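Q: How would the structure tokens look for this protein?
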Amino acid sequence: MTLHANIHDITAHFEGKTQAILQRYGPGPRVHYHAGIVDDPPAPDASAQVLRRQLFEAQERILRYAAEVWDSPTSLSGEILDVGCGLGGGAIFWAQEFGARVTAVTCVPSHANWVARFAAHAGVEMRVSPLVCDALEVPGENRYDAAVAVDSSCYLLRRKWFQRLARLLRPGGRVFIMDCFLGGPQYQEQFNRYWRTRIGTVDEYLAAAAQAGLAAESVDDISHRTRHFWTTTLALMRAEAKDVPLSATNAIGYDASLRAHALVRQGLCDQGLRYVLISFRKAS
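A: Here is the predicted structure in token form.
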């Protein structure tokens, strides 16, 4: 991916997070690293094991919600580009649930290996093809029926990315984005610093897509249904800290994570941050 920062720094960052992602969101084969739908806060005495299960169920729930909004049996059942696929949870979801043939793009070489391993475990190794590649350099023209990006578009230079998508998509092809967007400037600096990203506004995306010839179809704000995902991650971090005493170094990272997750939850509550599903279409 082309990022606001050096791609090697971002690659190293996510390489270093792999085991933590597996521990929190595994064991697989569908391992997700994105927000989820949680309508109620967790029980105060919930164990770490219960909270991890609730987070996985929330991530699956948001994909099923998106699948319904995006009419996935029709729109995500052909040749699909999954941009910023993480450990492949979404790619495997589209392949298993809708028979899609998914090119799963990542900038993290070890993640491609995990995607292949999990796809084989799920029995869809012939339908999920990992690709280690800059998102702006995915090869081909008029190749895909749809592109999907779940909690990954915030790492991309939007204008250049939409321009590349417009060439990659077949006539009538669709772009589906699920991500956190900026609602108020007070959250921008802290969000970008912790998540090592460049959060944008919905209007920025709409303008960049329009310049690339992609027409907006739908904008669905589900902030109110995702804020308790962060309540749950906060509860899990506290439960994990009780189970395993933290070293001085780990305590610093723990405090930073608590602040960052609390920031996202607060932002989703006051609309300083927005969690939104957006879809676009290339002209036929």
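The chain has a mean pLDDT of 94.

The first strand starts at residue 79 and ends at 83.

Upvote if useful.
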